[in-house]
UniProtKB/TrEMBL annotation:
Lineage: Bacteria, Pseudomonadati, Nitrospirota, Nitrospiria, Nitrospirales
Residues with the 4-aspartylphosphate modification: 59
Extent of the signal sequence: none
Coiled coil: none
Protein name, as recorded: Response regulatory domain-containing protein
């Protein structure tokens, strides 16, 4: 799963890249500014980005555009609402952390970075991203299946237009002049399981003596 690393210091980018590569994470996309990162994410660009990104590691203090400003722009994109963003920062007061979460960050890591902490938080974020992606896929499959069932039902209910039913014997006219029992018609057209029974009114008319039975 691809990780976008945004930091204006080359040393910090190299450090993060080395730690993540040694643990088998990748591909890694290091850039030196928030604007470059937003371009890779496809923000402000026409069409979908060339590379799908599963996680963003981003510094806060950067020239031109801060990490918090970049977070806010990312969260304005509907398709990036669930993208994990981990802030890497030396500013770890309660106010700083609250500002990061308010801007849209999902987690933060203190600088200087501790390798074990970095790997644990990255693994957790990517695992959550996989679960979210899998859930979206299931929801999309369910939506498509529901549409298919709706189309099938509409086809069944509208394919014949007017249905002719005998007023006396209640047989259905189909295939030209052929009349068939309504049970057989339903079995063939709706593919439903049809069970025969006798309603109470018909039962009492045919067997009036049963009314007297306790």
């Amino acid at each position: 799963m691809s990780i976008l690393i945004i930091d204006d210091f080359q040393e910090e980018r190299d450090l993060l890249q080395t730690i993540l590569q040694s643990a088998g994470f990748g591909p890694l996309l290091p850039v030196g500014s928030a604007r470059e990162g937003l371009q890779l994410l496809g923000i402000g660009q026409r069409g979908k980005p060339a590379t799908a990104i599963d996680l963003v590691l981003m510094d806060i203090e950067m020239p031109e555009m801060t990490g918090l400003e970049a977070c806010q722009q990312i969260r304005l994109e509907e398709q990036l609402q669930a993208l994990p963003i981990i802030i890497t920062t030396a500013h770890t007061t309660a106010e700083d952390i609250q500002s990061a979460y308010t801007a849209g960050a999902t987690d933060y890591i203190r600088k200087p970075v501790i390798p074990a902490e970095l790997l644990a938080r990255v693994a957790t974020a990517l695992s959550l991203k996989q679960e979210i992606d899998a859930r979206k896929l299931r929801e999309q499959e369910l939506l498509e299946r529901t549409k298919e069932l709706d189309r099938a039902f509409e086809h069944i209910t509208t394919r014949h237009g007017t249905i002719h039913i005998c007023a006396k014997c209640k047989r259905v006219k189909s295939d030209g002049s052929y009349w068939q029992r309504i049970e057989d018609y339903l079995r063939r057209q709706a593919r439903s399981t049809v069970k025969e029974a006798v309603c109470e009114t018909c039962l009492h008319q045919a067997y009036p003596h049963l009314k007297q039975m306790p």
